[in-house]
Design a protein that fits this description.
about 80% helix; mainly alpha; rod-shaped; about 0% strand
Length: about 230
């Protein structure tokens, strides 16, 4: 093979290698020609949008923000780590919340059906009315009275006291005031012939003895017990 043939063969190989490059360059040139009008429109649009923030934004502000971001990079990393922990925590308790929330809703609905929530609301309203009508000193006095009332309620919890109060409450229904007539001494003696009157007088005597303890706060009973028997 002569030198001319070798040169021609090499030129053919070079041309074959340059053909894809030429094709790519042509494609890039066509893409550039297509993008030039779009880039011009995008640039004009960007300018119009930046005009709205021109008065409140300066390039120096962007640089200050960038420096602040770089100085706070450790804080940002810590915040992201904590955010990951929160996400893990929420992911862990999500199944519990799915089962607990309906139970809480059902419980609150049951309280609403039984009127418990309305009672709580009414109690809060009562407390607001008390606070509006009475001073703190008055409320303290009311509290002292409530303590005394609770002590009386505790005494009434005794079975004998409860039985006595029940019988005492039933007395008005057994008394006929329309048939009550004046009674003199002889009438009282005649009334004592009735068994009920004698039993009533016995009850009255027991009450009289018990009421005698009111004078000394119950000390008279102890004094009677300490008296020698004749």
């Amino acid at each position: 093979m002569t030198n001319e043939e070798l040169i021609l063969e090499r030129l053919d190989r070079i041309e074959a290698q340059l053909a894809p490059i030429s094709s790519t360059a042509g494609s890039i040139s066509e893409l550039r020609e297509d993008l030039i009008p779009l880039s011009g429109q995008a640039f004009r649009l960007l300018i119009r949008e930046l005009e709205d923030v021109e008065s409140g934004f300066q390039l120096e502000d962007l640089m200050a923000l960038l420096k602040r971001f770089l100085r706070s990079i450790n804080h940002i990393i810590f915040t992201l780590e904590q955010l990951e922990n929160i996400v893990d925590f929420v992911t862990t308790i999500e199944p519990l919340l799915k089962s607990a929330v309906p139970q809480v809703i059902n419980y609150l609905d049951d309280l609403e059906q039984r009127g418990v929530l309305r009672i709580i609301t009414s109690m809060l309203d009562v407390r607001a009315k008390i606070a509006a009508a009475y001073s703190p000193e008055d409320v303290d006095q009311i509290g002292d009275g409530a303590v005394v009332a609770l002590g009386l309620a505790k005494r009434l919890a005794d079975p004998k006291a409860a039985e006595f109060m029940e019988k005492l409450a039933a007395l008005p229904s057994k008394v006929d005031l329309a048939n009550a007539k004046p009674v003199g001494p002889f009438g009282m003696l005649g009334a004592l012939g009735s068994k009920q009157a004698r039993e009533g007088l016995g009850v009255l005597m027991e009450l009289t003895k018990a009421m005698g303890e009111l004078k000394n706060g119950g000390s008279s009973a102890a004094a009677r017990e300490s008296e020698p028997i004749a």
